[in-house]
């Protein structure tokens, strides 16, 4: 038999599985990645605030 050139056609089952994986990755972005980015951003903000606030040690 002759082999056809080009990629193999995706079956309905493979397409469904691929879409499920994509949905799973999208859910992980919302449940893992975004909260992690927010926590890192807040830590940076707190660090900058602590380093730039005026000193409160006045001997008056």
UniProtKB/TrEMBL annotation:
Membrane spanning stretches: 29-50
Please provide the record's keywords in A-Z order: Coiled coil, Membrane, Transmembrane, Transmembrane helix
For the region Disordered, give the residue spans: 1-20
* Domain of life where this protein originates: Eukaryota
Residue ranges with Basic and acidic residues bias: 7-20
Tell me the InterPro entries matching this sequence. Answer: DUF4519
> What membrane topology does the UniProt entry give?
Single-pass membrane protein
Q: Which family does it belong to?
A: Belongs to the SMCO4 family.
Under what name is this protein listed? Single-pass membrane and coiled-coil domain-containing protein 4 homolog
Annotated organism of origin? Bombyx mandarina
